[in-house]
Amino acid sequence: MSYINTLFSICKYKILYINSAVDLQKVEQRVQVKLVPITLDNVTFVRSFKGKSDVNKFRRFLNTGELGFYAEVNSEIVGHIWVKHCAQPEKNIRGYIDLLEDEAVIHHIHVASEYRSQHIFQMMLYDAVRHIFSQKNIKRLLADVETGNTASLRGFEKVGFKYLDKELFVIRILRRVVYRRIFYLKI
């Protein structure tokens, strides 16, 4: 099935946003999570819970100026989160998201399966959002989440993200976006 998804995929996304760190909602801390910036020196740490291809992907992210963090619990890397900032008047990100100047998008978030259900996702998201708003001139932080990923959607909601009044429908062939359509919702 994953081979077929590599060839052809259809996804529907909900778009979430947060306008400032003031809008954040504190989350229950079940374990102590420390965010560690991802650098070229520690990029290989992702191998502790993901594959070699992720190392190359993370290097590519770093080389294009993206900001990434590892989530560390008891000196063990258990997750990651990436943010892409748009400093240009407008930029298309990931082939289907249009960012305006000083907007950013959170993407590529992952928590190791054995560490799920411990609020690590929310704590990582909360700390990353605080850091981004304090370090960059960001007007709005966006995230796209597949509509079927209810755990991630709830995690974003709990941290204070709101839904944008649109959904995104994307078709990919060989991982390239060949069609995208934005549907505006009546709320």
Verbal overview:
The protein is α+β, with helices and mostly antiparallel strands. Strand 5 and strand 6 form a beta hairpin. The longest helix has 16 residues, at 120-135. Strands 2-3-4-7-8-1-9-10 form an 8-stranded mixed sheet, sandwiched between helices. Strands 5-6 form a two-stranded antiparallel sheet. 29% of the residues are buried. The radius of gyration is 16 Å and the shape is globular. It has 4 helices and 10 strands; from the N terminus they run αββαβββββαβαββ. The mean pLDDT is 86. The protein has a single domain, classed as Gcn5-related N-acetyltransferase (GNAT) (Aminopeptidase), CATH 3.40.630.30. Helix 3 crosses helix 4 (150-159).
Features of the shown structure:
single chain; 187 residues; alpha+beta; Aminopeptidase; eight-stranded mixed sheet; two-stranded antiparallel ribbon; 4 helices; 24% helix; 42% strand
